[in-house]
Design brief:
Elements: H1 2-21, H2 25-37, H3 41-65, H4 71-91, H5 97-117, H6 119-134, H7 140-151, H8 157-174, H9 179-188, H10 194-218, H11 224-247, H12 250-274
Helix pairs in contact: 1-2, 1-11, 2-3, 3-10, 3-11, 4-8, 4-10, 5-12, 6-7, 6-9, 8-9, 8-10, 9-10
């Protein structure tokens, strides 16, 4: 009962932070499962990855309804990602827990630095500015969507291949969606509209998480009972987080969470080095 309650609270906290700060649950849930649930690094990663599938797929549905998904690109990314995610998940079994968590701490630091200094936000802002400058026929939001669709061309398989391999490996090895890698690439290299980048990323994340989940489950790294409780907590948490985000300045939220993530990564590194 205590473990189930803890799982629900972790899901609530993960959803709250995801809804408030707009970040993926993998960065948040994995260290919490390890620290508070006592899971091994491999089980924490596998269980978190299983949580990513329903949450990302649910988010993708909203973008599907607005026709803001590049299905061709999602499939091009998913094909190489399947192999990379499977390989990344299988590799976790041959890496020590210390090496895995130290590597994951490095990933958290990179994500935290992006939140603190806004590298991906800079790309999004330039993308939105370019879209608005191309047309003045409608409101800013409509201008961005309309002009972007006029100039955007779906990337070829050769351009999508390395992105899919990288995102797939990160998904399988670290139990993260890979969206924080894909979205900046979509904006900077593929000239993709912002909203379409978000929708396509969510669909791709849900697709590439599947082979990683299967591999982790086969290795015994997924606690499906915990996943169910995480989902129950993550849904209301995400809703509440989005309400909070509306009332608080985005810049302040991101910097605060960036600092929190740096502290979390520092604590993880310290704990692993002391063992």
């Amino acid at each position: 009962m205590i473990q189930l309650l803890a799982s629900c609270l972790i899901g609530l906290g993960t959803g709250l932070m995801a809804g408030t700060f707009g970040v993926g649950g993998g960065i948040v849930a994995t260290p919490l499962l390890k620290v508070f649930m006592g899971f091994s690094a491999q089980v924490a990663i596998g269980t978190t990855l299983a949580l990513i599938l329903p949450t990302s797929l649910t988010g993708a549905i909203n973008y599907y309804r607005q026709n803001l998904i590049d299905y061709k690109l999602a499939l091009k990314l998913a094909l190489p990602s399947v192999l990379a995610a499977t390989g990344g998940a299988a590799l976790t079994g041959s890496v020590s827990a210390k090496q895995l968590m130290l590597s994951f701490s490095g990933l958290i630091i990179l994500a935290a630095l992006d939140l603190l200094f806004g590298y991906s936000d800079g790309l999004k802002a330039r993308r939105a500015k370019k879209a608005v400058s191309l047309t003045n026929e409608s409101s800013q939001a409509e201008s961005e969507s309309r002009s972007d669709r006029e100039i955007y061309i779906s990337p070829t398989l050769s351009r999508a291949l390395p992105v899919g391999l990288l995102a797939g490996f990160l998904s399988g090895f670290f139990g993260v969606g890979g969206g924080f890698i894909m979205i900046p690439i979509f904006l900077a290299l593929f000239n993709m509209p912002l909203k379409m980048a978000l929708g396509t990323s969510l669909l791709t994340v849900s697709l590439i998480s599947i082979p990683g989940i299967i591999t982790h489950a086969w290795l015994g790294h997924v606690r499906f009972d915990t996943v169910a409780m995480l989902v129950c907590g993550a849904v209301p948490g995400s809703y509440l987080g989005s309400k909070i985000a509306i009332m608080v300045k985005d810049k302040l939220l991101k910097k605060g969470f960036g600092l929190l993530m740096l502290l979390m990564a520092g604590q993880m590194i310290y704990s692993e080095l002391q063992m």
